[in-house]
C-alpha cells in the first residue's frame, strides 16, 4: 500500500477506538498516523524512508523491505518502550503500526507476521498503487470524514 492509504486506514481504526482511551486527542491522532507510516522506514524510497534516508538505508540493508520491521514483534517492542515512558500513549501508536501491517497483508507481496522464525504470510489480491487500492483509499477517506465529524463536532 502507499503512504496515503496507510494513513487513511490508520486514522479510521484510530477514530473507531478514539473514545476508549484517556489520551490527548491531538497526541492520539499524531501517534496513530506516525504508527501507520513508520513500518515503511525499511524502504528508502517510501515517504518516511525519504525523511530519514540514512536510517532507512541502514534498516533496509540489514533487514530488507517487509521483513523484520513488518512483523508483530516490532510494534510490540516499541509499544512496550513507549508504555514505560509515556503510559497509555502506546495504544494509538500500536493501533497505527498494526493497521499498516494489516493493509500490507492485503497486497500481492503480503506480510510474514513472524519473520524470520516461521512462515505466517498473509497476502491478498491488491496491487500497490493500482485501481483497487484507490477505491479502498476513497472508502477510508469517506468513513474518516464521517468519524472525524462525529468525534470532533
Features:
single chain; 153 residues; mainly alpha; 2 strands; 62% helix; globular
Write the layout of secondary structure elements.
Elements: H1 3-17, H2 25-37, H3 47-51, H4 53-63, H5 73-86, H6 90-104, E1 111-112, E2 121-122, H7 131-152
What would you say this structure looks like, in words?
This protein has 153 residues and is mainly alpha-helical. It is built from 7 helices and 2 strands, in the order H-H-H-H-H-H-E-E-H. Strands 1-2 form a two-stranded antiparallel ribbon. It is globular and about 45 Å long. The model has no long low-confidence stretch (mean pLDDT 93).
Given helix and strand content, the structural type is: mainly alpha
Please state the average pLDDT score. Answer: 93
Number of helices: 7
* Spatial order of strands in the largest sheet: 1-2
Low-confidence stretches: none
Instruction: State the major sheet.
Output: 2 strands, antiparallel
Q: Please give the number of β-strands.
A: 2
Q: State the end-to-end distance.
A: 30 Å
Looking at the structure, what is the overall shape? globular
Work out the strand percent.
under 5%
C-alpha Rg (nearest Å)? 15 Å
SSE run:
HHHHHHEEH
Helix proportion of residues, in percent?
55-70%
Brief synopsis:
The protein is globular, with a radius of gyration of 15 Å. It is mainly alpha-helical and 153 residues long.
